[in-house]
């Protein structure tokens, strides 16, 4: 079973999150106090793993401003917290079909929810009457025996009829026994029973333990034997040392049981080699380090219990500096990453049944590139075994290669006509590129970082104004290529430079990479001197500085002016959900600002007179909407064809510069 959608209600700051879909690896993005933790903990309570127990508590978890009216708001029912839909695979459908027939399987969706003080509630994909007909048809009844049963449509109707007949007919008694053996004596109860082994338990992690650098091994062994090592939270650091040895394939019993120095040393060396190889695969910050495990007799001058018996020490040796240090003296980021890999490798190996991982703000102490290493670990080591949802506010923890796997978490406030502020509560949005500026910042940072990294390896680079320009050009190029017309040569890399002012600095910064750079800029009359100066500087090859005005027959132009006004208005309306009196059309666009011919400036002016409930216009939102709705450019209307014609003229010019 794979989790597909989530709906959280009545939990802390989450009054109603709205329905949102999740991927196999999903990132919840939001600023501090947005409610990311509340979303994850509400999910954790749906089916908590014993290792990370979590139960809903009305006094603690129900939204405080409504707590006094709980009974009034929910009458005789408990408030629902989590409602989820799951997708079952063909093998799981086959298990249902084997018992009730293929026609009884309604679809591949299961709904599972949980309320305060209640068990998990399932809605299963089964046609009950069809399943009952199948049971009757496959029970070897004669025609008269079938006739006696009538035409039951529910499990209760069939159960009642069988109880009437079971005393005089063994075949009816056999079916009664079978139906009675089902949970709740019902077909849905049996379908739930079939699917329950595939329903994952949720492991929620918000505290990420760090391994102790020094451990008294006999004491560790005693605590492992009596079980306190695994139940006492005060021993989490020692527990990770024990898991550290198991991760290496060298158990504590093996080390303490060694009878000769050579066998003892060989086992420790094996542990060191395994750990070094595994850690360095996902720690690219320093490739000159080596993990070393050392066990020696405690010295009398050391504090108890490290003053006698076998003491285990984890140390990190730096091959470059020819020096080693205690594990505890390494950077907070390294000790966190090291401990995390050990912990989750054990989760992966020991998880019984399906486990869905919920990770709250992992990797906060890591450098940006180390966070990228952590994401790679998620993808390569955890994701193949577990579905995952994690939260972050770091741009480096956003999967920039798949931004649409992110969900924006916002704590919203409604302001009425009197200026009174009323909390709406935490909500989760799938339209990740249409959220407020603070919430979307990590995604913008991730996109900018990805594009900048691409610039380092892209020999042929086109500098444009901003990310919105990139999305527009990608969408136009894709449609032209689909029509077997000229799109942008794929060897060109598009990168935002931030405007004419910044192009010179940008090219100077990356000039050492021997890049083939051209500039494609938006243009206004006030930019004339800057543009002339850029061309005279010869930092970009002759003919390599172009403006949008060169392709739009306008004195001033932005990338938006490649679009026919009718098409541009349509994109803006759909991107912002404008309708009725607020809907934008070419006439309104033209009248919005008569002092400019630039469509983006006209749109900004138009939005300034719209109701405050409509977000402020920005360049990025319509471009992002167009990229995710490519069918907008697939028609043959004059507004589409004229737009594509201008774009093709632009791409021909750019491609010609690539071949010079």
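^ Assign residues to that structure.
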């Amino acid at each position: 079973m794979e989790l597909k959608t989530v709906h959280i209600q009545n939990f802390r700051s989450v009054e109603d999150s709205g329905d949102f879909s999740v991927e196999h690896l999903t990132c919840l993005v939001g600023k501090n106090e947005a409610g990311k933790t509340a979303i994850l903990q509400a999910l954790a309570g749906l089916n908590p793993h014993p290792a990370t127990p979590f139960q809903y508590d009305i006094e603690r978890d129900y939204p405080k401003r409504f707590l006094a009216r709980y009974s009034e708001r929910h009458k005789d029912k408990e408030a629902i917290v989590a409602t989820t839909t799951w997708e079952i695979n063909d093998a799981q459908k086959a298990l249902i079909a084997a018992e009730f027939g293929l026609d009884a399987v309604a679809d591949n969706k299961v709904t599972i929810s949980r309320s305060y003080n209640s068990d998990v509630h399932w809605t299963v994909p089964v046609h009950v009457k069809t399943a009952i007909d199948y049971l009757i048809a496959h029970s070897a009844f004669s025609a008269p025996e079938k006739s006696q049963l009538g035409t039951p449509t529910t499990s209760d109707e069939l159960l009642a009829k069988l109880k009437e007949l079971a005393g005089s007919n063994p075949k009816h008694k056999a079916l009664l026994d079978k139906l009675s053996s089902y949970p709740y004596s019902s077909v849905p109860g049996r379908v739930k029973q079939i699917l329950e082994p595939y329903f994952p338990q949720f492991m929620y992690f918000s505290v990420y333990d760090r391994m102790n650098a020094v451990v008294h091994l006999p004491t560790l062994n005693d605590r492992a034997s009596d079980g306190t090592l695994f139940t006492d939270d005060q021993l989490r650091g020692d527990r990770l040392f024990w898991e550290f040895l198991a991760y290496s394939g060298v158990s504590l019993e093996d080390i303490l049981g060694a009878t000769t120095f050579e066998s003892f040393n060989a086992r420790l060396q094996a542990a060191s080699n395994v750990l070094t190889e595994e850690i360095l695969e996902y720690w690219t910050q320093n490739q000159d380090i080596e993990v070393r495990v050392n066990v020696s007799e405690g010295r009398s001058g050391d504090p108890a219990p490290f003053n006698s018996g076998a003491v285990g020490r984890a140390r990190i040796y730096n091959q470059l500096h020819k020096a080693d240090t205690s594990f505890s003296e390494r950077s907070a980021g390294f000790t966190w990453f090291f401990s995390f890999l050990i912990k989750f490798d054990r989760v992966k190996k020991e998880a019984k049944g399906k486990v869905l991982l919920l990770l709250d703000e992992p990797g906060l102490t890591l450098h940006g590139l180390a966070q990228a290493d952590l994401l790679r670990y998620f993808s390569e080591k955890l994701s193949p075994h577990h579905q995952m949802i994690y939260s972050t506010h770091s741009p480096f923890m956003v999967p920039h290669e798949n931004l649409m796997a992110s969900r924006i978490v916002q704590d919203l406030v409604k302001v009425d006509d009197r200026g009174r502020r009323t909390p709406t509560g935490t909500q989760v949005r799938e339209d990740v590129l249409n959220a407020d500026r603070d919430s979307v910042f990590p995604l913008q940072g991730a996109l900018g970082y990805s594009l900048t990294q691409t610039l380092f390896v892209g020999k042929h680079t086109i500098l444009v104004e901003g990310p919105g320009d990139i999305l527009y050009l990608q969408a136009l190029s894709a449609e032209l290529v689909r029509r077997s017309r000229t799109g942008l040569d794929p060897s060109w890399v598009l990168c935002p430079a931030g405007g004419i002012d910044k192009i010179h600095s940008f090219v100077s910064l990356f000039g050492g990479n021997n890049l083939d750079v051209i500039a494609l800029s938006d243009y206004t009359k006030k930019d004339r001197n800057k543009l002339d100066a850029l061309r005279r500087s010869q930092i970009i090859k002759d003919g390599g500085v172009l403006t949008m005005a060169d392709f739009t027959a306008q004195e001033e132009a932005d990338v938006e002016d490649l679009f026919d006004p009718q098409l541009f208005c349509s994109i803006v309306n759909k991107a912002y959900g404008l309708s009725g009196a607020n809907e934008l059309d070419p006439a309104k666009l033209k009248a919005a600002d008569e002092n400019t011919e630039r469509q983006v400036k006209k749109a900004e002016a138009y939005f300034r007179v719209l109701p405050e409930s409509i977000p402020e216009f920005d360049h990025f939102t319509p471009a992002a909407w167009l990229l995710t709705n490519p069918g907008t450019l697939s028609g043959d209307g004059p507004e589409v064809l004229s737009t594509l014609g201008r774009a093709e003229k632009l791409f021909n010019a750019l491609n010609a510069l690539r071949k010079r």
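The longest strand covers residues 2-11.
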